[in-house]
Amino acid sequence: VPSNHIPSGNLCAYLSCCSSFLEVVCKLTGSLEISWLLFVFFSSDIEISRAQCPKAVDVLAKEIGLLTDEIEIYGQTKAKVRLSLLERLKDQPDGKYVLVAGITPTPLGEGKSTVTVGLVQALTAHLNINSFACLRQPSQGPTFGVKGGAAGGGYAQVIPMEEFNLHLTGDIHAITAANNLLAAAIDARILHENTQSDKSLYNRLVPVVNGVRGFSPIQLARLRRLGINKTDPGTLTEEEISKFARLDIDPSTITWQRVVDTNDRFLRKITVGQAATEKGFARQAQFDIAVASEIMAILALTTSLQDMKERLGRVVVANDKKGEPVTAEDLGVTGALAVLMKDAIKPTLMQTLEGTPVFVHAGPFANIAHGSSSVLADKIALKLVGEKGFVVTEAGFGADIGMEKFFNIKCRASGLVPSVVVLVATVRALKMHGGGPNVTAGAPLKKEYTEENLQLVADGCCNLQKQIQITQLFGVPVVVALNVFKTDSPAEIDLVCKIAKESGAFDAVPCNHWSAGGRGAIKLAQAVEKAVNQKNNFKYLYNLELPIVEKIRTIAQKVYGAQDIELSPAAQSQVDRYTQQGFGNLPICMAKTHLSLSHQPERKGVPTGFILPISDVRASIGAGFIYPLVGTVSFLFLYGDLILKLFVKIQHHIRALTVGSERMVLAVVSLAVVFMLIYGTP
């Protein structure tokens, strides 16, 4: 059987998953290719994943140059990679650094993850060039909710899919434990300070052990911050004892919430401290999704174990009654948090469907955080691929959000300079930006999207052109990857590629990686290989020394195309407070809808002349950024897309039924579930 009839030459995978139906078709038609095409159309992502037998992870590790003592194996297909590798390879030149971003997407997504995986499969499995993909770990919230996993899809995915999407190596659970330990320490400290004298508190904090009383290193550091230059606990005055022992946390200013990695709506608002042992010190609180924890953003941006410990110590959890910030370091729990995270800091090694290496590490959201995988995974991968190799990573949402944060936040933390940007587009999204009907997850696409319409495509390319211009603000070459769907006509594909190249893209190529694996992304890989040799004038968008408001204005005007910004009184108050507290020199992480360049999701194309409203401004001091909330954005937007994407699964199950009454029953029940999710009522 000619292997070129099977994507990636994967004959074993084909034979192992060929159903009896396809075997019959093959015998009747005498065509393996027809049988294979049917398999492509009728197989789900998980069936494709399970059809492939991944190589043992120790074999993969040896192939990419890892030593036996540099990996910690988790089962047959996953391994943690120790950070000692960076010391061993410190003199090795870095490979080429490639960022995959996208145009403003439809609610369906445009395929950045599949492009990332397809590109590395093309580079390594087909062009014999060392490459690594660096991806985020998905949350169990979306995985068990509606959106599903994040391993890619079709013949461009990470395997085993179940291992990728479920638990992985426990990093998110470690973040949950560390986050909730800090939350518990906050409430415990408030309780003890409310029920004990200064002397009792001091004796608990600095106890006599084996007849000796001494300050711990973290306590000595707190004394220095307070201006108390003493090392003998017995020499502190009563005033100094009170100053040292009491944090005087203002409960109304606590910003640190407990987390759980499940979409549990009944935990969005809770009351803590109702037991009799808490002596009436109850307060309102809430649970967030685990990956929204600042500790996740810290994990993604840290450069070493020591750096992570320092970042954890800088986390601001509340203000005291004088308006000064209270940190994890003040609570004395920094060491405990670092111990809980000691294994999570190591990237996890996995592989693609075609056996090429992948690092899965960290999974911060792309709204309240920067939306990229870890700095450490990128740094290790860049050493492993060698000077001529490629590391491909992804930025969440469109280039106006994910890419801007990648450059201004992640690149500042890592010191790494990207070689090229791959900008993902689809004909479907461009038609939407050109004035096409609304695209709704689960609803059938209107005929404008399934039939050739060159005018809609041409009009919608304004968004692609804008995203290319945004990339050029940072001085990095850009290659456009057109993710091809079966409904795209050759004329539409040619038109998009032509306009992209005329608009400043180094190249623009159609990609068929979803249905053909790495073979479908070979032209993209060749374009990227050429683009990295272009002149790179990388630069940040703004100077950190600018005032917070000016940095926000720069992003709004230069990236989004806003006329100006407007801060609410609450937002301005927070800006003033952060500036007074010494946090004014941090980069900005805008929390904005990803469905439009503006703050209004319904405004497609390239909106202009709008005023960008900033409703609130918050800070992740440990992670190292300020995040303004744009418009009516709130933490509930973490689930908005999940509700929309429920329609996809509804449609799938309805189509699977043949009896009309059964379809009707399922449709009614499914819609009821959606309304319960939105309105919280039965």
Automatic annotation (TrEMBL):
GO terms for cellular component: cytoplasm. The keyword Transferase does not apply. This is formate--tetrahydrofolate ligase. PROSITE patterns: FTHFS_1, FTHFS_2. It comes from Catharus ustulatus. Gene3D superfamilies: 1.10.8.770, Formyltetrahydrofolate synthetase, domain 3, P-loop containing nucleotide triphosphate hydrolases. Keywords: ATP-binding, Ligase, Membrane, Nucleotide-binding, One-carbon metabolism, Transmembrane, Transmembrane helix. In the C-terminal section; belongs to the formate--tetrahydrofolate ligase family. In the N-terminal section; belongs to the tetrahydrofolate dehydrogenase/cyclohydrolase family. The chain crosses the membrane at residues 625-644, 664-681. Its EC number is 6.3.4.3. Pathway: One-carbon metabolism; tetrahydrofolate interconversion.
